[in-house]
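Dear colleague,

Thank you for sharing your sequence with our group. We've completed the structure prediction you requested, and as agreed, I am returning the results in plain text so they can be pasted directly into your records. Please verify that the sequence below matches your submission; if there's any discrepancy, let me know and we will rerun it promptly.
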Amino acid sequence: MWKDVRTIEIIPGRVLMLITQWRNNGETIKILNVYAPNQKPEQLAFWQKIKDNLDNRRIPKPDIILGNFNIVEDSADRLPAHPDDNKVVEALKDIKSRLNLVDGWCTENPDSITFTYTQEATKAQSRIDRIYISKKMEKHSRNWGITHSRIETTDHKITHTQIFDPGAPEISPGRWSIPSYALENSNLRKEIVTLTKTLGNKLAAHDNREEGQNEAELAPNSHPKQSVYQEYK
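Please find the predicted structure tokens below.
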């Protein structure tokens, strides 16, 4: 799979598009990874440059935009709560609207508030790390969450989700079986032997009882052996 990954660098160190196959029919998924500047004078120009690249079709329309946005859309995503620069927020919202994207975590957790970053000096918190996903693809996503990263060099939590192929066959967990470690219990093994012997005796009794009977003589909908097996299980 990874040999088919293609990347497009839009703003060095800031914006990178990743395109990879994700369905058996060859369909691709396009992910735009962003690391927005923290300095206010640079933020508006940053989103404007992304918009220009999309408008001029220098990059394909992404299915997902994710990363560190360094702004929030809603003041509730900051603690203490306060709004960010309205022009910058509107520039981001304009891109979201053009691409028909939604904030996946917020959509799945409309009544929850959590944060991905804590500013060490002031202890101020914010949810600046997000995943925006197309409405079409959001229907095939699940398990949205925000958790601590195992990367030691970051002080941000990560926002994550699972996206599944709607055309993929459903795979069951498989047939139930006794875990191997349980068979190490001698009392359990003895009980299984006893129950299995009882099963054999009951099946033999049913065979003897039905000997000489034809199909017409048997009770309708009678499945004695199946009942014995069910009781054994």
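Summary note from our side: The mean pLDDT is 85.

Kind regards,
the structure core
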